[in-house]
Amino acid sequence: MEIKILGTGCPKCNKLEQLVKEVVQEKGSDAVVEKVTDVNQIARAGVMLTPALMIDGDVKLAGKVPSKEDLAKMID
Hints:
Elements: E1 2-6, H1 11-27, E2 32-36, H2 39-44, E3 52-55, E4 58-62, H3 68-75
Parallel strand pairs: 1-2
Antiparallel strand pairs: 1-3, 3-4
Protein backbone atom coordinates (compact mmCIF):
# COMPACT_ATOMS: atom_id res chain seq x y z
CA MET A 1 0.00 0.00 0.00
CA GLU A 2 1.25 3.46 -0.90
CA ILE A 3 0.00 6.38 1.17
CA LYS A 4 0.76 9.98 0.24
CA ILE A 5 0.08 13.04 2.34
CA LEU A 6 -0.20 16.06 0.09
CA GLY A 7 0.45 19.42 1.70
CA THR A 8 2.84 22.31 1.83
CA GLY A 9 3.78 21.95 5.49
CA CYS A 10 0.97 23.77 7.26
CA PRO A 11 -0.01 22.62 10.77
CA LYS A 12 -2.96 20.57 9.44
CA CYS A 13 -0.69 18.87 6.89
CA ASN A 14 1.79 17.97 9.61
CA LYS A 15 -1.03 16.68 11.84
CA LEU A 16 -2.33 14.43 9.06
CA GLU A 17 1.16 13.06 8.47
CA GLN A 18 1.56 12.34 12.18
CA LEU A 19 -1.81 10.58 12.40
CA VAL A 20 -1.16 8.47 9.29
CA LYS A 21 2.20 7.32 10.65
CA GLU A 22 0.62 6.47 14.02
CA VAL A 23 -2.18 4.43 12.42
CA VAL A 24 0.23 2.59 10.10
CA GLN A 25 2.50 1.74 13.03
CA GLU A 26 -0.38 0.64 15.29
CA LYS A 27 -1.76 -1.63 12.56
CA GLY A 28 1.68 -3.10 11.86
CA SER A 29 1.10 -2.28 8.21
CA ASP A 30 3.85 -2.42 5.61
CA ALA A 31 2.43 0.68 3.91
CA VAL A 32 4.89 3.17 2.45
CA VAL A 33 4.11 6.69 3.67
CA GLU A 34 5.35 9.65 1.63
CA LYS A 35 4.80 13.38 2.09
CA VAL A 36 4.40 15.41 -1.08
CA THR A 37 5.06 19.13 -0.66
CA ASP A 38 5.62 20.17 -4.27
CA VAL A 39 2.70 22.35 -5.36
CA ASN A 40 2.93 21.14 -8.97
CA GLN A 41 2.68 17.48 -7.92
CA ILE A 42 -0.25 18.29 -5.65
CA ALA A 43 -2.05 20.09 -8.51
CA ARG A 44 -1.36 17.21 -10.92
CA ALA A 45 -3.12 14.92 -8.46
CA GLY A 46 -6.19 17.14 -8.84
CA VAL A 47 -6.01 18.39 -5.26
CA MET A 48 -7.05 21.99 -4.68
CA LEU A 49 -7.32 21.89 -0.87
CA THR A 50 -4.68 20.61 1.51
CA PRO A 51 -4.06 18.55 3.44
CA ALA A 52 -5.02 15.66 1.21
CA LEU A 53 -4.62 11.92 1.54
CA MET A 54 -3.96 9.56 -1.36
CA ILE A 55 -4.04 5.80 -0.95
CA ASP A 56 -2.75 3.75 -3.87
CA GLY A 57 -3.23 6.69 -6.24
CA ASP A 58 -6.79 7.57 -5.21
CA VAL A 59 -7.53 10.82 -3.37
CA LYS A 60 -9.46 9.78 -0.26
CA LEU A 61 -9.90 13.20 1.31
CA ALA A 62 -8.88 16.81 0.90
CA GLY A 63 -9.10 19.96 2.97
CA LYS A 64 -9.45 18.42 6.42
CA VAL A 65 -7.86 16.19 9.01
CA PRO A 66 -10.00 13.14 9.81
CA SER A 67 -10.27 11.54 13.21
CA LYS A 68 -7.82 8.77 13.93
CA GLU A 69 -10.67 6.27 13.82
CA ASP A 70 -11.82 7.43 10.36
CA LEU A 71 -8.24 7.35 9.14
CA ALA A 72 -7.82 3.77 10.37
CA LYS A 73 -10.93 2.75 8.38
CA MET A 74 -9.53 4.35 5.23
CA ILE A 75 -6.22 2.52 5.63
CA ASP A 76 -7.86 -0.89 6.19
